């Protein structure tokens, strides 16, 4: 079991009193590089059918991807080249999806909670619900834990059985969540252009940049960075825990909705063009 971001629920006393990382000295001229190399891209209209858009997604084993249908009650499975494989019927419109381990994915089911999807060979089998209470809208998984937004300005950390490990109160209501192996939790709300973080040492940070407008989607890269896309600025930033920022993609994406990173393959997926285009990049960094 990994080190957790906090030792007990009693540690959560921030009430949104965020501290900007060295804001007076760590707003350097933002660097730009070619850390992402295009791997493939495709349209949902070609892969999934006309008028289909997707909102969130995640990588799953055997070089496949899950995509949440943004309006219908389906979870779509495709391969990395955009070839349709199958769709999983659900009882709800999926709000987010994350890979828990090599045999399970978890899906945000709103008021229904979190549903486990078993990955068995080429089959995807919908299984039990976890019910942490509240409306589950965004999530991330790391080291046998589920980090989920399940209430207004609330994040819960759970095990796979739904047992509560920790509860976090946030300043704004999380809309995107990502967690890394070093015990940090990142989230973004719709209220501001800030990326919030509670680090392993319990410090709370805020990341902002004039070059990052309307941040959407968060993905930890397993190297102590979080990758975030700008919906309005049409770019992708990589932010270190020191607050240093690098623009890793500055063109070629329009209105990104979500992104996810697969550290073994070193692949970044971006859902853009209002949910109708999938870009996959290889990290060269």
Give an overview of the whole structure.
The strands form 6 sheets. Strands 1-19-18-17-16 form a 5-stranded mixed β-sheet, with no helix packed on it. Strand 20 (215-220) and strand 21 (225-230) form a beta hairpin. The protein has a single domain, classed as 6 Propeller (Neuraminidase). The protein has one helix spanning 44-47; strands at residues 19-20, 31-32, 36-43, 54-60, 64-69, 74-79, 84-89, 96-101, 104-108, 114-120, 123-130, 138-142, 145-151, 154-158, 164-169, 174-179, 185-189, 195-198, 204-207, 215-220, 225-230, 235-240, 245-249, 258-262, 267-272, 277-283. The protein is mostly beta strands and 285 residues long. Residues 1-32 have low confidence and may be disordered. The longest helix is centred in the N-terminal third of the chain and has 4 residues, at 44-47.
Quick take:
This protein is an all-beta fold and 285 residues long. It has a 5-stranded mixed beta sheet with strand order 1-19-18-17-16, with no helix packed on it. The chain has 1 helix and 26 strands.
pLDDT < 50 stretches: 1-32
How many beta-strand elements? 26
Shape: globular
Q: At the third CATH level, what is the topology name?
A: Neuraminidase
Order of helices and strands: EEEHEEEEEEEEEEEEEEEEEEEEEEE
Q: Identify the CATH class.
A: Mainly Beta
Query: Strand order of the main beta sheet, please?
Result: 1-19-18-17-16
User: Total number of helical segments?
Assistant: 1
Proportion of strand residues: over 45%
